[in-house]
Amino acid sequence: MAIRLQDIADDLNLSKMTISKVLRGQTDVSAETKARVLKRMKELNYRPNISARGLRTGQTYSVGMVVPTLADPAIAQMVRGMNEVFRPASYSLVISSVDGDAELEEREAELHLSRQVDALIVCPRSDASDAPQVLKTTTVPVIYAGSTPPRFAGLSVGLREAEVGQLAAEHLLERRCKRIAYLRGPRTAVADKRFAGFLEALRNAGVTVRQEWIAETQSSEAEYRSGFAAMKRLQAGKMRPDGVVAYTDLLAAGARDAALSGRMEIPRTLQVIGCGNVIEVCETQVSLTSVDLAREELGRRVARMALKRIEEKGETSQRSATLSPRVVQRESTRAS
Amino acid sequence: MAIRLQDIADDLNLSKMTISKVLRGQTDVSAETKARVLKRMKELNYRPNISARGLRTGQTYSVGMVVPTLADPAIAQMVRGMNEVFRPASYSLVISSVDGDAELEEREAELHLSRQVDALIVCPRSDASDAPQVLKTTTVPVIYAGSTPPRFAGLSVGLREAEVGQLAAEHLLERRCKRIAYLRGPRTAVADKRFAGFLEALRNAGVTVRQEWIAETQSSEAEYRSGFAAMKRLQAGKMRPDGVVAYTDLLAAGARDAALSGRMEIPRTLQVIGCGNVIEVCETQVSLTSVDLAREELGRRVARMALKRIEEKGETSQRSATLSPRVVQRESTRAS
DNA sequence: ATGAAAGCGCTAACAC
DNA sequence: GTGTTAGCGCTTTCAT
Fold first, then answer.
1. pLDDT one-digit tens code per residue, B300-333
2. How far is it, in rounded angstroms, from Cα B214 to Cα B201?
């Protein structure tokens, strides 16, 4: 077995209490003793048993996180933001990925609670209509990251999704686009909100929305191809769009490449804007203007909220927060 | 506080031992009692405290994993493979991302040990020359995933990196390429091995390697642009390559797009092959042939190795394993 | 400044 | 089939 407090105590003819005090930086230990203890700890490669400590104190300094998938740059960004806050506070983030499986999400959330996390962060699956059951029966703080499922009355940090569509539309309108197409993406709550924002911006600008320019795209697989195909279809119509808003950067990239492979020039005859601001995708070819979804900031906010809720044990002085997206301009739209 | 075994025991006028037995599926409990207990557990939303159990049994059923970054599709694939093995065995994978920081890697590994993981999996940073110090002073099984750092004498599951370069070269040679360029990527051990394999394949085929076709590319940032620029340079030379092997898919994509934007046709006048088989990157434009790095299988193997090592407590009947890559053909190279 | 006792929630080993 | 005792490694509380 590994080295324990007791071993060090025996070794130094002290009680384990004294060792424990040194370990936790208590001040009522003589400097000399403290030095001896620390030295021996190093030598023996002592590592405190966090489970045991947690059992005693009721705090594990770990925060659970449930995400639909790890293969999503947005998640990686959020996690980076969270760690920025958690690490300095000595908390660890324990992530589990559930591959979009609702049942697994339930099980993993439960597992986290069993492991005594101090808080639980949930990134809802895109099609989630409800929070996992477990979360309703726990006193552990739960925070939603990205959006709150409709029937969950808890804390969350979200993004003004409607603004995403709105900003994208306004960006193109400011650049004199008159015929703006939209690549719709999946039929999820998030996608619907972005689309609604897009429509509203056009309406506010007095620009008509033509049904034929609202392009349905395939499911999340093969997004690029889906965007490519949709753009080809749009180009085949008699009225060609002079601007495209796409639900994701990959859709936008597909649309861009379809346009380039046709007769279009970007941004001269067609301007394109995506969502996500995923650099690996945006910084290609004629680079893509994109709506940044503030994932890192979102991660930071969620983490800070979690820490606060952990501290205040019970009374909840807190409110959910919502962030705004912003446009990052690149070559696929004009400068002014 | 949460519900404990004791609460259920009190509730049902049983000893907590009986409850514990039901919890763990022991058979020496009457069917009737068992049913009552299970029912009450459900009702009260009882969740066993895994820390406490771990403290007692010395097993936490969690496996730590340290990765250089989460924003890497290869990692996501490995994790999927691991979970495929771990979940059915009731183990959880606890991942921490260290953003390529050696010191952080050390700290996170230590943290995992403090949290009493049953095994530790490490994905070495690309520039790692040595394993974290902590790992030398622990009895917990440690397994390297992807490659073993030079000075670490432990278990690992790796990939025959030289074969990656070799397969790529052979793929192009079989397709009648005579003038094969190579986009080299960063100066890491892995990149060097792939390059060595590439050189060997050419030598075996009696094809000369021209220095001017070995293109240095920028650091990992902006890979696409780097590949694009490198290809432009190659095209500007008097002897133009008729085939390109790139260290990553993103480099390959950049090279492909540079070629397409010039006078080249792919695969007719230029054939391109990348490494990584990242679908989001490969399935674009003229889709990219790529060397698949068997990440999911690697994850599975690592996980199985971890479970075995956990079981056999001490004696180590095991040897490291090495997997082979394989080529996935797409449009950027010819059919035959 | 140091230490003894008790107990966090659970389970192994053994009675009954 | 059920219960008792002891203890995993640590910290809290209170003596000394």
1. 999 999 999 998 866 676 788 999 999 999 999 9
2. 15
Closest-approach residue (CA) in chain B for A43: B137
Q: Which nucleotide is nearest to A114 (CA to C1')?
A: C9
**Model pTM greater than 0.85?**
yes
Pick left, alpha or beta for residue A206 (phi over 0 → left; psi -120 to 50 → alpha; otherwise beta): left
Q: How far is A50 from chain B (nearest CA, A)?
A: 5
Looking at residue B329, the DSSP 8-state letter turns out to be: -
**Tokens 């009522």 belong to residue:** A28
Strands (DSSP E) found in chain B: 62-67, 92-97, 119-122, 142-146, 155-159, 180-183, 214-215, 243-246, 271-275, 289-292, 321-323, 326-328
Nucleotide nearest to A3 (CA to C1'): D9
Radius of gyration of chain A (CA): 26
The position carrying tokens 């929070």 is A131
| A window 54-93, beta carbon within 8 A of B | 54-55, 58, 60, 62, 69-71, 73, 75-77, 79-80, 83, 92-93
Tens of pLDDT, residue by residue over B210-244, are 898 999 887 667 899 999 999 999 999 888 999 99
- Give the distance, in angstroms, between the CA of residue B118 and the centroid of all CA atoms in the same chain: 20
